[in-house]
TrEMBL record, chain A:
Keywords: Electron transport, Heme, Iron, Membrane, Metal-binding, Respiratory chain, Transmembrane, Transmembrane helix, Transport. This is Cytochrome b. It comes from Consotaella salsifontis. Its cofactor is heme b; heme. Residues 13-224 form the Cytochrome b/b6 N-terminal region profile domain. InterPro entries: Cyt_b/b6_C (IPR005798), Cyt_b/b6_C_sf (IPR036150), Cyt_b/b6_N (IPR005797), Cytb/b6-like_sf (IPR027387), Cytochrome_b (IPR030689), Cytochrome_b_C_euk/bac (IPR048260), Cytochrome_b_N_euk/bac (IPR048259), Di-haem_cyt_TM (IPR016174). Heme b b562 binds at residues 96, 197. Heme b b566 binds at residues 110, 211. It comes from the Bacteria. Pfam families: Cytochrom_B_C (PF00032), Cytochrome_B (PF00033). It is found in: Membrane. One of its GO terms (biological process) is respiratory electron transport chain. The keyword Heme applies.
UniProtKB/TrEMBL annotation, chain B:
Keywords: Heme, Iron, Membrane, Metal-binding, Signal, Transmembrane, Transmembrane helix. InterPro entries: Cyt_c-like_dom, Cyt_c-like_dom_sf, Cyt_c1. Pfam families: Cytochrom_C1 (PF02167). GO terms for cellular component: membrane. It is found in: Membrane. This is Cytochrome c1. Residues 88-260 form the Cytochrome c domain.
Length: 436, 316
């Protein structure tokens, strides 16, 4: 949290630096003394995990780029050379490919955590919006990265996705040609995708800095949704959050490594081990798993709506499904943040989770039979959640009684009676809780 | 050509009849991939028409899903967290590849020197390479010339180019086998794919190849249209029949180690070999993984203890 700095340089050299560039002070205030609510659970460790994943992606990506050829005639073979002949190349590539997937695993948990605890509400609107921007940048980066190995799915995925833009009248075709560098996916496309794929992660890193800055201005939310009020509500970031985040990261890495070392191709598509062939369309073009809910919404619109044909309708719905998140802070009318104290919202939250997974499953199904209808139902519900349920629910729902403070929620009701430090915590420890 | 036909008919859990899907997708949003593709070559145009007809016909009835039968899950030595190669088996598989498959299939990504991983000595690899002839050049006079292969050369391809390969094989070019064990997998479907994350099932490729190679000679279900020059195989992922004639027959390859020469044995051995060709670092990967997992587990335990200690006096 902003506010006054408690950093005290410990020696003359640090004093000298501090007077000229207070970088150590910034680090100290942000990652050592920074007060965090004492009641954060493990859902709150995903911010740290995401930073770790971004780091892993950048480091492995920079090494891969040293061996990769961004040329359509060479790209597929250069990736295979990395896999076969570069020392530890297989590890770099599998870490990077699965790292993208686990980046999305983490970001989805992070986003849903934000939804559950109302992290997007005032005064954290900008923090939330920056998060949505990061999510969009991640999607663009991942999509372009998937094109680089120049396998069948790379090629046809790029063809289909850049084709979305042709749905827009007038500007659609020029946009598509700009993206492709021509009239079809080809070497020019690969070149620009490689360039942008290298650029965007650093833009993500930049927005992440803003995201964390905004976080440190408003402070973190917490499972009660009650703002921090006194010193008793918080603990210093180090060692409390550092060690907890650390544990979250190591456990997350265990899952990640399970895939990297034992099933590195589980999340990929076998067709991407076939070199790109513009003359041969794969039987079924599917995006990476983390795009499937959006892909389902795209294909759910199979009918024209007035002047909007089904293709444009699908594209608008797909983009809209993310755009709507920008407005979330104003769509949710409830004054209570946390779903813990919103019994009805909590149900709708879980329905949304199920709906998203359902859409993801539909995205992996062929667009035939009953599936487009189911996708349409799922899509309607998805939008209804944001545009109808949230605004109305905030007005009609009776929230449970909020605790007076975080400390009260944690230490029990007696805490509020003023005997703060002396109040015995509900269970276990006999010694005074706070001031050891 | 069969391939495209097959693609247009393809079903299975992961794949859909492309003709149908493309129509739908075209309507729904994405541009028809077919339309975006450059004009197909002549042979493909013909097969395309055939495919559309077949697909139209198919539309009347149940959509067939390919493969018609799922491959059996075999026990492979390289499966699981402690997977390892059976070098004898890889050598046998290599022999099958060399004496049978190499007549039609290339394996461009594999170099002779890689064969040392199968347990061959450097001299043996030199001798193996020496049996092949590769084109090199140009020499000082500007001419290409032929010379015996050396260990750093890659396996030469049986055909000069894909067109020649297709022309010699009823219009379907035999695919390169370097990555085939990772480039084919029958979709597992729900809930199997969830269990797979725990059982580490990653052998869909070799299972598929084995099933395909041993799946010939069965009777097609009534009403199945088998195009001339193709062979019914219920395990083929792209349609009811494929252009590859049954490549294996009993005792076609003589094993030096006395292993009986059955079609099933050949298929197992060559599938293992192809898994190695597709993923030469597989065993090294799993062995590294074990150390990494062990390290992370111990580290996680230590971090957990420190965390408990740090938070011991802080109710939260």
């Amino acid at each position: 949290m902003s506010g006054h700095s408690s950093y005290v340089p410990t020696n003359r050299f640090m004093r000298w630096v501090d007077a000229r560039l207070p970088l150590p002070r910034l680090v100290y205030d942000s990652f050592v003394a920074f007060p965090v609510p004492r009641n954060l659970n493990y859902a709150y460790t995903f911010g740290g995990i995401l930073s770790l994943m971004l780091g892993i992606q950048i480091v492995t990506g920079v090494v891969l780029a040293m061996h990769y050829s961004g040329n359509s005639a060479l790209a597929f073979h250069s990736v295979e050379q990395i896999m076969r002949d570069v020392n530890w190349g297989w590890l770099m590539r599998y870490m990077h490919a699965n790292g993208a997937s686990f980046f999305f695993v983490a970001v989805y948990i992070h986003i849903f955590r934000g939804l559950y605890y109302g992290s997007y509400k005032a005064p954290r609107e900008i923090l939330w919006i920056l998060g949505v921007v990061i999510f969009l940048l991640m999607m663009a980066t991942a999509f372009m990265g998937y094109v680089l190995p120049w396998g069948q799915m790379s090629f046809w995925g790029a063809t289909v996705i850049t084709g979305f833009f042709t749905a827009f009248p007038i500007i659609g075709d020029p946009i598509q040609q700009l993206l492709l560098g021509g009239f079809a996916v080809d070497n020019a496309t690969l070149n620009r995708f490689f360039s942008l794929h290298y650029l965007l992660p650093f833009m993500i890193a930049g927005v992440v800095i803003l995201h964390i800055w905004a976080l440190h201005v408003t402070g973190q939310t917490n499972p009660t949704g009650v703002e921090v009020k006194t010193k008793d509500d918080v603990v210093p970031f180090t060692p409390h959050a550092t060690i907890k985040d650390g544990l979250g990261m190591v456990v997350f890495l265990l899952f990640y490594c399970w895939f990297v070392f034992y099933m590195p191709n589980f999340l990929g598509h076998p067709d991407n081990y076939i070199p790109a062939n513009p003359l041969k369309t794969p039987a079924h073009i599917v995006p990476e798993w983390y795009f499937l809910p959006f892909y389902a919404m795209l294909r759910a619109i199979t009918f024209n709506i007035g002047p909007i044909d089904s293709k444009l309708g699908g594209v608008l719905v797909m983009f809209g499904s993310i755009i709507v998140l920008f407005f979330l802070p104003w769509l949710d009318t409830s004054r209570v943040r946390s779903a813990v104290y919103r019994p009805i919202y909590r149900i709708f939250f879980w329905v949304l989770v199920v709906d998203t997974i359902f859409l993801g499953w539909l995205g992996s199904r062929p667009a035939e039979g009953i599936y487009p209808t189911l996708a349409l139902i799922g899509t309607i519900y998805y939008f209804a959640h944001w545009l109808v349920i949230l605004p109305v629910l905030g007005l009609v729902e009776t929230p449970r009684k909020l605790p007076a403070s975080i400390a009260e929620a944690v230490l029990g009701p007696n805490y509020a009676s003023g005997t703060a430090a002396g109040a015995a915590p509900p269970s276990g420890s006999v010694s005074a809780p706070e001031n050891r | 050509m069969k391939k495209l036909l097959a693609a247009l008919l393809a079903g299975g859990l992961m794949i859909i009849p492309a003709a149908h899907a493309q129509d739908k997708e075209g309507e729904a949003a994405s541009p028809s991939p077919q339309a975006a593709a450059p004009a197909p070559s002549e042979s493909e145009v013909t097969s395309n028409v055939a495919g559309d007809e077949a697909a139209a016909e198919e539309g009347e009835h149940e959509t067939p899903h390919y493969p018609l039968k799922r491959p059996a899950e075999l026990a492979w030595t390289f499966a699981g967290p402690f997977g390892h190669w059976d070098l004898q088996q890889l050598q046998r598989g290599y022999k099958v590849y060399k004496e049978v498959c190499a007549a039609c299939h290339s394996m461009e990504l594999v170099a002779f020197r890689n064969l040392e991983a199968l347990g061959y000595s450097e001299d043996q690899v030199k001798a193996i390479a020496g049996d092949y002839t590769v084109t090199d050049g140009p020499n000082g006079d500007g001419d290409m010339f032929e010379r015996p292969a050396i260990p750093s050369d890659h396996f030469p391809s049986p055909f000069a180019n894909p067109e020649a390969a297709a022309a010699a094989n009823n219009g379907a070019a035999p695919p390169d086998l370097s990555l085939i064990a990772k480039a084919r997998a029958v979709e597992r479907g729900f809930p199997r794919f969830v269990f797979d994350t725990v059982t580490q099932y990653q052998e869909a490729g070799p299972d598929y190849i084995h099933a395909l190679l041993t799946g010939y000679g069965q009777n097609p279900p009534p009403g199945t249209v088998i195009q001339p020059g193709t062979h019914f195989n219920p395990y083929f992922i792209g349609g009811p029949a494929l252009a590859m004639p049954p490549p294996l027959s009993a005792d076609a390859v003589t094993y030096d180690d006395g292993t009986p020469g059955t079609v099933d044995q050949y298929a197992r051995d060559v599938s293992s070999f192809l898994m190695w060709a597709a993923e030469p670092h597989l065993v090294e990967r799993k062995a590294t993984g074990f150390v990494v997992m062990l390290y992370l587990l111990i580290f996680a335990a230590l971090v957990y203890l420190v965390k408990k200690r740090v938070w011991a006096n802080t109710p939260h």
